[in-house]
Amino acid sequence: MAAVARGRGLPRAWLCRRAGPGCGRHYRAALCAQLKQPLAIEEVASRPVRPHEVRVDVHFCGVNFADILVCRGQYQEKPQLPFTPGMEFSGTVLETGTDVSTVKEGDQVIGVSGFNGMAEECIVDQKTLWQIPEGVPLREAATLPVSYGTAILALEHRACTRPGETVLVTAAAGATGLAVVDVATNVLQAQVIAAAGSDEKCKLAMQKGAQSTVNYGQGGLKEAVRKLVGSGGVNVAIDTVGGDVFLEALRSLAWEGRIVVVGFAGGSIASVPANLLLLKNVSAMGLYWGRYKEQNFPVFSRTLSSALQYCQQGLIQPHVGAVFKLEEVERDLDTEEDGHVKTGTENGVMQP
Predict the structure, then answer these.
(1) Which CATH architecture has domain 26-145+309-350?
(2) CA pseudo-torsion sign 79, 121, 299, 168
(3) CA angle 134-137-142, nearest 5°?
(4) pTM for the full model?
(5) Do 22 and 94 touch, CB atoms closer than 8 A?
(6) Based on the number of CB atoms within 10 Å of its own CB, is 248 exposed (0-12), middle (13-18) or buried (19 or more)?
(7) One CATH from 3.40.50.720, 2.40.160.10, 3.30.300.180, 3.40.50.300 for 159-286
(8) What is the per-residue pLDDT across 232-267, written as a single tens digit (0 to 9) for each?
(9) Which range is the signal sequence, renumbered to this chain (predicted)?
């Protein structure tokens, strides 16, 4: 994934902290006490773990687009105020409940939380933790759940992408887009066309492995794709933009092509022209990553296990652009009207 450093259009930032021994009575957490207002870093009282729960010393936590939306009150999930954002994290197990059998104290893990990962410690159910295999750094492991979990679900489970097929990826320089390019190219051996809104973003997608790029800031996506692959079209499209970009990606599909709707970062939700589905026997399907945790947990868990395995094998290489300290959330992170994260300074990694 690409973390936010400076400027617009890069997908996410990372928070890190210095891990301390043991579990204190209080810990620091980023709190959203009022929607559309800056986060505050406050001391929060620790609570006991329940029998099935695990307390994790958080080393890294991702800042996703969903975190921005939930802090605005614009996400489909609306936690009660005050709450702590943060959907994914990596860290070290501090304490386990009496019924926990999957991890033990000292294990390095990645975890998925509802919205409470942006803190020095996090308590989660044991089933939402996965052990980090040897050779996978904590920083890179923390990038895997949301973006790579989404990419693997979209490509493997929903679109059933096959080696040699052509995959069109929109918003290809975003966190999810880069993960889709990485998995499609280096795991599934597909031919990837990366579409983004600037030459700089296209270059980043090429570095991740895309065979060709389209800058849809300079013209229509459909015509640009046609020049690359001819009238036959692409087999798979993964779209996170919505609006006109989605419609052009849909029109770029080949016979029996598949398009997966992942999000609407462009802010517009398009209506699907049913005649386009009929004429070329194409399929349009949705992917709500977090819903799999409740509706089909075995599939959800398998995608994260696959992401860790791919990372250990060196097949995928998550992109991290910058790392920020926890206390910098309050000072440096802001949100812009187009939904991108903006930061005021670039910082190095704070070692645990």
Answers:
(1) Alpha-Beta Complex (3.90)
(2) positive
(3) 115
(4) 0.87
(5) yes
(6) buried
(7) 3.40.50.720
(8) 999 999 999 999 999 999 999 999 999 999 988 888
(9) none
